[in-house]
Structures are given as C-alpha cells and as structure tokens.
Design brief:
GO terms for molecular function: 3'-tRNA processing endoribonuclease activity; ribonuclease P activity; tRNA binding. This is Ribonuclease P protein component. Consists of a catalytic RNA component (M1 or rnpB) and a protein subunit. Its EC number is 3.1.26.5. This protein has helices at about 15-25, 65-80, 85, 110-130, and strands at about 30, 35-45, 50-55, 95-100. By secondary structure, it is α+β, with helices and mostly antiparallel strands. The longest helix has 20 residues, at about 110-130. It starts with 16 loop residues before the first helix and ends in a 7-residue tail after the last helix. The model has no long low-confidence stretch (mean pLDDT about 90).
Length: about 140
C-alpha cells in the first residue's frame, strides 16, 4: 500500500495575483455540481505539483460562517484526495486549480467529496492526455 502525504501546506495554496489572473483568464473550465473548476498547467517556479484556490461567493452566502464552513469542507476533501493528481503532473510543470462553489445552500461533506473526487479524476485524465494548455 502506498503512503500519501495528506498535509496541505502553505506552498500548495494559490496566492499570487498574477497566477490567479492567469488561471481565470486562460484556464480551462470544468463543472461538477456543486463545484466549478478552472485549471491550467504552467511552467514550475516552485517545488509543488499543484497550487489550489478555494472560493465561496459572498453573493450566495452573506454570512462568513457559512462561507468558511463550505470552504473547509472543500479543502478537506481536496486534502484527502489530492493524491489522484500528483502522479500525473509532468516534471518542470505545476497545476493551478481554482474550486468555486456554485450551489446556493450548504451541502453535506460526502456530496462535496464526491464532486471533488470526480473533478480531480477528470483533471488528471486531461493532464495525462496533454489536453490542456501549457503556458
């Protein structure tokens, strides 16, 4: 059995404005209810394979408590299933991913986790096929 690293470190968070703008301008969209993803493969400037951003719109959830709860659920589902992606990213590249929550009510963790698993496997398949933009 393979041991996976289930940590989610600061290096794996997508924070730079130019990377975020590149992701939303040129990234490929993917929707798996209740999540919409944007992803792009770029030349690596860091030692991580994936950098991730989680977003829950203030327009849908006025209270920060609900936004934070949903964001934590998505982050936890990603943290436990990120191993689905890390093996498929080529050397010298890293993957930028944004998860945006779409539903207008908070859903159960198992629904969010299923959506994250399905979307990560679809992104992994696209990376393996080299079907996404290389910047």
């Amino acid at each position: 059995m393979t041991e996976y690293d289930y940590r989610f470190s600061k290096k794996e968070r997508l924070c730079l404005k130019n990377e975020i703008s590149l992701l939303f301008e040129k990234g490929r969209p993917l929707t798996v209810h209740p999540l919409r993803l944007r992803y792009i493969l770029v030349d690596s400037g860091s030692d991580t394979k994936c950098k991730v951003l989680f977003s829950v719109p203030k327009k849908l959830f006025k209270r920060a408590v609900k936004r934070n709860l949903i964001r934590r659920k998505i982050r936890e589902a990603y943290r436990l299933n990120k191993h689905l992606l890390t093996g498929s990213v080529p050397e010298g590249k890293h993957l930028l991913i944004a998860f945006v929550y779409l539903d207008n009510s908070p859903l159960a963790y198992n629904i969010i986790e299923d959506s994250v698993k399905k979307s990560l496997s679809m992104v992994e398949a696209a990376v393996r096929k080299k079907n996404i933009k290389h910047e």
